[in-house]
Task: structure prediction
Amino acid sequence: MNSTIELLQSHRSIRKFSEKPIDQSVVNQLVNCGQCAATSSNVQAVTVIQIHETETRHKLAELAGGQPYVASCGAFLVYCADLNRPKFACQQQGGEFAPGMTEHFIIATVDVALAAQNTVVAAESLGLGICYIGGLRNNPAAVSALLDLPDQVYPVFGLCLGYPDQDPEVKPRMPLDAVLMHEHYDSGVFDSNVNAYDETVRDYYLTRTGGNKDSSWSQEMKALVGKESRPHMDGFLKERGFLLK
Amino acid sequence: MNSTIELLQSHRSIRKFSEKPIDQSVVNQLVNCGQCAATSSNVQAVTVIQIHETETRHKLAELAGGQPYVASCGAFLVYCADLNRPKFACQQQGGEFAPGMTEHFIIATVDVALAAQNTVVAAESLGLGICYIGGLRNNPAAVSALLDLPDQVYPVFGLCLGYPDQDPEVKPRMPLDAVLMHEHYDSGVFDSNVNAYDETVRDYYLTRTGGNKDSSWSQEMKALVGKESRPHMDGFLKERGFLLK
Result:
């Protein structure tokens, strides 16, 4: 155990921020920490768009399904998977860009997540709180239009940064035995671990909501993967030049 | 600046490891740090398979395109995007799993990358070195067969962990101005920044290889995105129940 590990283990999302602003030099440093993460073949397929304008922030908060902290947080970053920059470099060398490869989509999406998570760890090490905003994928076409994203670029998620004005509990996770397997995949570990975790999650929600939310992890998963989710994503991504082959 | 930020900024991949073993308790703690990362709707779509057996390690090293450190590192982890566990939970609740949603594929792939990066940061904070192994996607069907991965699970990458037996330089990254944009996407920043970075990368390779490697970032990008890359991925993923709609 050390202070970095302690920091990682104390993560929880923050959705209420104080009005204390974040210096731009800090935001720059945080994004730079993101750049220092590993990147597949050094492609660095990440573009971060920082949104300062109040009106744009409010539009994005709305597009994300009504998440007011997108507007009220100290800094809001849109993380884009960006194959347009390597395409530019390729063409500058006289190459012909190979569009729509699923492999390139994976590379770019993973690059974005690795970079963002480094930025998150750096932010939390400075006492900032964070919240990922997957809700930008509710209407990725509108987000793309608002931010002038070209083809070969898509908004993966947003990131709220700010000084916390709340101190929520850390959310309990799945038992390690259901997540870390050895030698082979073994779905035999699910039964007892998922059942145990269902009760942990139920207790967590009951305590946190004063008895108002009574739900298990399995119930939440039924709601999440037991129905279609953002069914526009496939068509949207294909239109933007991704996932064509 | 603090020690965590310093740690993040000093990352470089390690491909030569000492024989010092890693305690299993340490590996468990590192994977737990990964679990503490944010996860979309708490889906925790990550399964980590630790490979201990020498023979399997050698097979994976081979499948990854001949990367001997997959076999020689202290611990080797295969990071899988796993919708099979939430599917199990959904079905346990009497729900019907909605297969093949591109949105679920993104959620699971991002979850894996966030978790892995937390594990990487924790590992480096303990003095361990790491190397991501995207090469597992060279032949994901063979990797899946070797590890008994069921449908709704795919190997995103591997991760080598171990005590470093080399001390390579930190690789320079793209200028921040080409990566952090404001309000809108602006490809106007590419020209000067990419040209400057091309020279930085050329110098880095020349110095590092004693003059043997003479290449710029743009040249590397032409080689990467100027041709099809792992063209089997699309078909493989569809066969495993991903990216169907």
Remarks:
- Chain B is about 45% helix and 15% strand.
- The longest helix of chain B spans residues 102-125.
